[in-house]
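Suppose you are handed a protein chain with no further information: no name, no annotation, nothing but its sequence. What can you learn? This example shows the usual starting point.
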Amino acid sequence: MKDELEIVVNLHMHTRYSDGSGTHKDIAAAALKTGVDVVIVTDHNVLVQGFEGYYKEKNKKILMLIGEEIHDQARDPQKDHLLAFGAGRELATFAENRQRLIDQVRDAGGLSFLAHPDDPAAPAFKETDISWEDWSVQNYTGIELWNALSELKTLVPTKLHGAFYALFPAFVAHQPIPSTVVKWDELLAQGGRVVAIGGSDAHALHMSLGPISRVIFPYEFHFRTVNTHVITPEPLSGEVNTDKKLIYEAMSQGHCFIGYDLPAPTRGFRFTAQGMDKTAIMGDEIPAKNGVTLQAKLPSQAEIRLLKDGVVIKTWKNQLSCTHITTEPGVYRIEAYRRYLGKLRGWIFSNPIYVR
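A reasonable first move is to predict its three-dimensional structure. Written in structure tokens, the prediction is:
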């Protein structure tokens, strides 16, 4: 697939309509500076109307879509947050019953993702644990595998740590929280199709520590880090409803990967499978009969790991591509790592190809 069919989406962010510090206009301006194609704004328990559409500046444009992050506000602590995209109606009234909420999103033609499945407490900043707990739910689209803000909470045992990462945010991201990845592999092993996305959870929070006052993770910084790269059968048309449908359809199919774009751009990554009479991309199923050739191509050299059913079966160091032939059914996915700021960090996490 050609590069123009890859759409870089930054999703999960908040404005002044909930607990973010900026406006929709601020988000659009930040996005226009960073090269993302689409942003999906998800304020807490409110579907904000009137901001969806294309925002332009000179020869650049971005598409802003509006979703919602829903949780039961009467519950303490307020766990089980759900991202809802494309439902087109207010659904926060169903927050009390997680399964009913997911069913309502689906009935409205929307997509639902379990937000930050592991979101630990950060007592130094009076932040409680808001992980996902109700794993009895079914029929959701997928999970937010990598949430940039949840990861920060794992790194700040003291306010001093917080001050360091506020000043040097590029040191934060390492990879999705490992227990979230383990949970994803468990869900996939149960035979379901669970789409993984990466979210920034951008709030552009203003924080002060003594004389230091900073915006923690400005929107613009977030948009350069953890993105969801969506592969579509055709380019964006410039017509809002057509393009919204195109993006959400591709996401629902798992035709996407998570790219941590700060160390190096991940645009151009592909993971494909070639069978006897079928080709598959991420999110697709392909029959194992007569063998399947799995191939990954990267935009620059990295350590590539091929996983089958959650277990690394092959590793390639400093490669641009890799090939593996299999006759074994399983759930195959790619992880790529590269060194950045002195550490080996997660760079690309593909959605699986299901060899059945």
